[in-house]
Design a protein that fits this description.
This protein is mainly beta. It is built from 2 helices and 35 strands. 32% of the residues are buried.
Length: 474
């Protein structure tokens, strides 16, 4: 309707027959394509069988659709049964492309690309998927490392043989490439889909050395025989010896050194790698193993951030790549002040702040130890000019989950109050579990975990009565 009105308007303006004909000739016809379906699933097909599906290609434009080229990509399981390259389809006409699937694996995939002069879709793609109901051998583990086995001793590992396919799996033979490795299974094995059996692989060294080998599994599964790499050594492992000094340490104020320099190799080989890891730390701790070159035996400067036990692990490796059993060392961290308050929380992105009020103190004043005034011994509590009764905020964590702590070496007499402030403007604003630990005289006397929600809330946790060393939850 809109085109007719336009022509009429032009005629009113004084157009002649030649002008109208020119407008009609300016409208160029176009070729368009419609392909059905765009995704073909052949489903599960048994080995040796072939399934054929049809792709319908229709010319839905106003001029001839020219099919220039058809490309098939993917595994060799798919085949185009008819050639349509160069086919011309007038408007309204269609052609059928036959695609055959003969499975090669439990999961075959590919796609057909139809190149044409279509303006709407010059490269139409049809995805192809099929599942071969074939036997499929899965091994677990995929390789076997025996580690260290003494000369004239033997060690056996179990490898699971699993039929993960859709047809009966027949395992005809298991073998190795020779001594000191051996493989055994109750062959021939016949496994239905989902069934499994065991293969025993044994290492029996008669000489000192490091060994690499292979176990072979011959079956009716598609592809070559399955190979399981084998690795073992009869050379004595290096020995990792680890310690920590000083031990125990004062939380935050004292750093520890992890020592591995007494590690050795019984055969006199060079130790090339000292792998230190922190494998355990107290709940709420964010402490990490100091960085360092793995060629150096010691890791110095480890800083604790919470009271409790930290466990470090050392594994040493010699020049032949043989590693030791892990050596574990426990490091104890103790509070060095008479009053010690710790806090941590669960979800990061939520800035929780620890507050400790002196006897008679008010929030966010000089009677409140918190991030705004208490770092670097900025408050003078108790007896004027005496530092031992002043509070200190050692750690103020903003983006993480803590910890934070406030401590006093020799508190003044009275009742102290512990608050937690949910600082406003955090990215995480849902409920957050916050834990507070209170140590008095080096002993944990009170702990509690509470859910805090709502921005800018000051939540009272506990009162500490000193020197009675009594804690009352609030």
């Amino acid at each position: 309707m809109r085109h007719s009105l336009l022509v009429a308007a032009l005629c009113v303006a004084g157009c002649n027959d030649y002008d109208i004909k020119s407008i009609e000739e300016d409208v160029e016809p176009d070729a368009r394509i419609e392909v059905t379906p765009v995704d073909i699933s052949f489903g599960g097909v048994r080995s040796g069988e072939t399934v054929v599906e049809v792709i319908e290609i229709e010319s839905v434009g106003t001029t001839t659709l020219n099919l220039r080229e058809l490309d098939l990509n993917g595994t060799g399981a798919f085949t185009l049964l008819n050639e349509l390259d160069g086919t011309a389809l007038e408007p309204g006409a269609f052609a059928e492309l036959e695609v055959a699937y003969s499975p090669l694996s439990p999961e075959d995939s590919g796609y057909v690309t139809i190149h044409s002069n279509a303006l709407n879709l010059p490269e139409a793609v049809v995805t192809l998927n099929g599942g071969g109901l074939l036997p499929q051998l899965t091994v677990d583990p995929e390789e076997v490392d025996f580690g260290f086995v003494s000369v004239n001793d033997s060690h056996t590992e179990i490898v699971r043989l699993i039929n993960s396919g859709g047809e009966v799996l027949e395992i005809e033979l298991v073998a190795t490439d020779g001594a000191p490795f051996d493989a055994w299974a109750a062959t021939p094995l016949v496994l239905d889909p989902g069934q499994e059996a065991e293969m025993e692989v044994t290492f029996s060294p008669t000489d000192i050395g490091s060994y690499l080998g292979e176990a072979w599994i011959s079956s009716n599964a598609p592809g070559p025989d399955r190979i399981v790499p084998l690795r073992a050594t009869s050379e004595e492992r290096p020995v990792a010896i680890c310690s920590a000094t000083p031990n125990p340490v004062s939380v935050f104020y004292q750093r520890a050194n992890f020592i591995g320099e007494d590690s050795y190799d019984p055969a006199g080989l060079i130790l090339t790698d000292y792998d230190w890891r922190l494998v355990s730390r107290p709940s709420g701790s964010a402490a990490n193993m100091p960085s360092g070159q793995t060629s150096r035996p010691n890791r110095n400067g480890f800083q604790t951030d919470m009271v409790g036990t930290y466990i470090a692990e050392l594994v040493v490796t010699n020049e032949l790549g043989v590693s030791s059993e892990p050596c574990l060392v426990e490091l104890d961290a103790e509070p060095s002040q008479d009053l010690w308050v710790e806090m941590y929380w669960v979800h990061s992105g939520d800035d929780m702040d620890l507050h400790l009020l002196k006897p008679g103190g008010q929030l966010t004043t000089m009677g409140d130890c918190y991030y705004g005034n208490c770092t670097g011994r900025g408050l003078d509590w108790g007896q004027s000019g005496v530092s031992s009764d002043n509070p200190t905020l050692d750690i103020d964590d903003i983006p993480g989950t803590g910890p934070e702590n406030i401590n006093i070496a020799s508190p003044e007499t009275g009742t102290f109050t512990v608050y937690v402030h949910d600082y406003p403007g955090s990215t995480y604003q849902a409920s957050n579990d916050v834990t507070v630990n209170i140590y008095l005289g080096g002993v944990l006397v009170w702990t509690d975990t509470r859910a805090i929600s709502g921005e800018n809330n000051y939540v009272p946790f506990a009162e500490i009565v000193w020197p009675d060393q009594i804690v009352n939850g609030l």
